[in-house]
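Design a sequence for this backbone.
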């Protein structure tokens, strides 16, 4: 039986990425970052789409060459349909559709959030990676999303809890901006927070019922504490940067942990996975491993390179859709809002 070789393309935000997977095993995963947004303190959609247009061909070409295959070997091409920035999505989807049409092979549309979850099923030759068994709960946390997903199969995923306003990743980035840290600020809060006292500053927490989240009020509380501190001491942030970062990080992550524990108890599921950009946060990873030790939970944490936006997660999603004959047609269009 011939190998199933899938090319994945990811362009939902500001990273242009292409990956090749063969029968579930990763052969290449290329990511081109866009530095142009740093001076603006956040992603500028128009600049992002233009950068994707410049990067898409060399990134795809490099992914195919690094995989050691030829374009004629590809079984299908999959791409991120959404959610994301529409201009960025258009570049990836248009390229994927054109390439597939020229090669006369199928195209497969992938939900970006499903891709993050499916990152747990990427295989690496010579490196055994333990994947979660169905059903499991996945805490999917990024700059634009915060969700608890009940995963029953590769295609059966149900959101059972989500943010009602801002995402946890956005709370990290906005807090970093308040502290005067450069974009992207989330990793810097993680860095400084490692050496700080997480109980030094107390911030207000949301009181949202069920399994949902809310981070808008937390951002306001963080802003008020910092403004008050600056009123009393002009060097407040500089003198307390490590404790502030540790306290902010603890507040944001503590809510995530309590909600996923609540979901685990309610659903009777002890398999817990994390996904999305914030899953690279070291404090979140530490807290999850504590669940494994204290409460006998099965915890699954993806490798760092599969946490942030990457095409490997799109390719593995496309691979399982290929096996299920779940193809798309040339009339499919990207969507800035796309739900699981």
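Sequence:
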């Amino acid at each position: 039986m011939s190998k199933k070789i899938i090319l994945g393309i990811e362009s939902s935000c500001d990273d242009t990425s292409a990956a090749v997977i063969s029968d579930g095993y990763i052969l290449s995963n290329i990511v081109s970052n866009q530095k142009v947004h740093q001076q603006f303190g956040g992603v500028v959609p128009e600049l992002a789409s233009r950068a994707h247009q410049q990067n898409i061909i060399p990134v795809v070409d490099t992914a195919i060459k690094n995989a050691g295959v030829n374009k004629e070997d590809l079984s299908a091409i999959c791409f991120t349909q959404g959610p994301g920035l529409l201009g960025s999505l258009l570049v990836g989807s248009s390229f994927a559709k054109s390439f597939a049409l020229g090669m006369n092979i199928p195209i497969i549309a992938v939900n970006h959030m499903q891709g993050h979850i499916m990152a747990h099923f990427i295989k690496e030759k010579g490196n055994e990676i333990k994947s979660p068994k169905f059903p499991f709960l996945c805490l999917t946390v990024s700059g634009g999303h915060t969700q608890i997903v009940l995963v029953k199969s590769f295609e059966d995923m149900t959101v059972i809890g989500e943010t009602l306003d801002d995402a946890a990743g956005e709370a990290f980035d906005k807090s970093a901006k308040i502290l005067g840290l450069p974009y992207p600020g989330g990793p810097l809060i993680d860095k400084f927070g490692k050496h700080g006292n997480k109980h030094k500053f107390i911030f207000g927490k949301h009181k949202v019922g069920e399994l949902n989240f809310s981070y808008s009020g937390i951002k306001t509380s963080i802003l008020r504490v910092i403004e008050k501190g600056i009123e009393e001491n002009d060097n407040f942030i500089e003198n307390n940067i490590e404790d502030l970062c540790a306290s902010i990080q603890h507040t944001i992550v503590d809510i995530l942990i309590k909600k996923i524990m609540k979901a685990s108890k309610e659903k009777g599921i002890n398999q817990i996975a994390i996904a999305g950009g914030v899953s690279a946060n070291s404090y979140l990873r530490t807290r999850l491993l504590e669940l494994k030790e204290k409460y006998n939970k099965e915890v699954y944490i993806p490798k760092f390179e599969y946490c942030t936006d990457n095409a490997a997660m799109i390719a593995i999603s496309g691979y399982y859709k290929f096996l299920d004959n779940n193809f798309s047609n040339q009339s499919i269009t990207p969507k800035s809002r796309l739900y699981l």
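The first helix runs from residue 45 to 67.
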